[in-house]
Amino acid sequence: MDIWDSNLLADLRTPKRYLNDQYLAAIAGKGHGDIFNYRSIVGRLVQGAGGAGLISLPNAIVGDRSGVSPTISPSRTRVLSRRTHSTRTIDDTEIGVVDLAPAIIDGKSRPTADGTIIRELAGVLRPAVEHAIHERRLVAGSYYIPVPAQPAGRDYWITRSEAARLLWETRRDKRARLHLPLFTLIALYTGQRRSAILDLTWLQINWDRRWINFNPPGRIQTAKRRPIISVPRSLFAALRRAHARAISPFVIAYAHGDGERVGSVKNGFNSAAERAGIPNCTSHTLRHTAGTWMAQRGVPLYEIAGYLGHSEKRTTELYAHHHPDHMARARAAMESH
């Protein structure tokens, strides 16, 4: 069977998702034998999506590690990595580079963010190439995949008064006045990622023990861990009221028709944030806000990490400076002199 037939291509969300699925299938012995032939895979994807085929990029970006390693400044790597996702492969005559425009990668016309580029290149392409080399499908020592530097985290969070204004504004949109306030409450009180909240079903809530398991049955935990958390009283009361009127198995669902699951809250949320006077606030800001509020109240960092599904290292990087005990002993030691 052609793995790039029209049905599979129509169902394909991103190259990352497809390659990951095929990688897992390959481990189980069910994968396609040529899954790591990147020139073929990515080239067919681009052509199937109506884009351009193979192009050439300067050797400054894709160099031959078997000979002289390329010298490239971090700034130039960053700029060119923003413009392209590059895969180096070797055939009989040339070193080829596949260029995927950002619109083909994520279906959007705006430039791809550094975080997305890092995740795709360092988290997917590099491990896949290493696996292919290990399986002797690619020649070792001939692949160089530059990755932009990790961007600095944005320490932006909203105050409680701003959160109150935001919640008020989410109720003004008649089309979203039931599900958008509930989404905002869950995001503020639990600090979970947008996708985890939109995937949440009523069956994942334990009403007797008052906890939510954000990792649905059958989902394998990834680096973006979805924890089991105890539900605060205010949120629990709101969930009770929403459950009483629910017509859908999903918590965040439309209140009309068949109760279809809400696929995105981006437009409604951004409009509410604009009206609330906090235009830079996104749904992910609420996750950072929850962590910041907990740190400011003196919650131990390891508990914040467990609550948000972070690693302790990442939690320390993001929230330690908000904690009232941050470097308290170091400060006391210096004050004693």
Describe the model:
This protein has 15 helices and 6 strands. The strands form 2 sheets. A 3-stranded antiparallel sheet has the order 1-3-2, with helices on one face. Strands 4-5-6 form a 3-stranded antiparallel sheet, with no helix packed on it. The chain has 337 residues and is mainly α. The chain is globular, with a radius of gyration of 24 Å.
In short:
This protein has 337 residues and is mainly α.
Which helices and strands appear, and what pairs or packs with what?
Layout: H1 6-11, H2 15-27, H3 38-48, E1 54-55, H4 74-83, E2 86-90, E3 95-99, H5 102-106, H6 114-134, H7 160-170, H8 179-190, H9 194-198, E4 205-206, E5 211-213, E6 228-230, H10 233-244, H11 266-275, H12 283-296, H13 301-308, H14 312-319, H15 328-335
Antiparallel strand pairs: 1-3, 2-3, 4-5, 5-6
